Amino acid sequence: MYSIPILTQLVTFLHEIGHATATIVTGGHVRSLQVNLDGSGLCTSSGGIRLFIICGGYLGSIFFGNLILYTGIKFKYMSRFFAAGLAVCLIFASLFWFSTLQSFLFTAGIGAVLLFLFIKFSWSGRVFMIVTGIYSIFYILHDYQTGPSSDLVAFSSIAGFNATLWMYVWLVTALIITMLFLGLTLKKK
């Protein structure tokens, strides 16, 4: 799959935020997040329920990608504000969680540029939400073939069974999440 660097890094951010969200929801503490220019990332945390935290990256990013797309399609006028909220999340995460200067500058910079665009151009938020949502969903569904391999290996070492089995369980779960959001998106008011 052809990748668009800035969107790939945003998908990585969603993946790492998925880990961070699972950490917080299960009572843990996020120590740092890192998004690298090559599209890789890392969430360091302590506490929480490790199994949920590990699968939170892949499943969280598919959830967030679908939510972004759904918002862009269903909330034509409000999507600008939702997009601005995502930009603020990027800035917030860079201020409180990022451990490297490169990750901080990238994330805060992207958040600031996006926030400026969303304020300046009313149409930009909706376009951003739809494009980012579609890209995220396809990227994440495609990613099951090559992994979040480190997450799959870590998950299977705790949960048991083979990483390939969990890869397909995560893929089926991601497809179910996507189908549910698709149903909501196509549903008439």
Task: Describe the protein's architecture and organization.
The protein starts with a helix and ends with a helix. The longest helix is centred in the N-terminal third of the chain and has 25 residues, at 50-74. Strands 1-2 form a two-stranded antiparallel ribbon. The protein is mainly α and 189 residues long. It has 7 helices and 2 strands; from the N terminus they run αββαααααα.
- The total domain count is 1
Tell me the quaternary state.
Answer: single chain
Global geometry:
globular
**Percent of residues in helices:** over 70%
Structural class: mainly alpha
The main pleated sheet reads as: 2 strands, antiparallel
SSE ordering: HEEHHHHHH
**What's the rounded overall pLDDT mean?**
89
**Order of strands across the main sheet:** 1-2
- Portion of residues in beta strands equals 5-15%
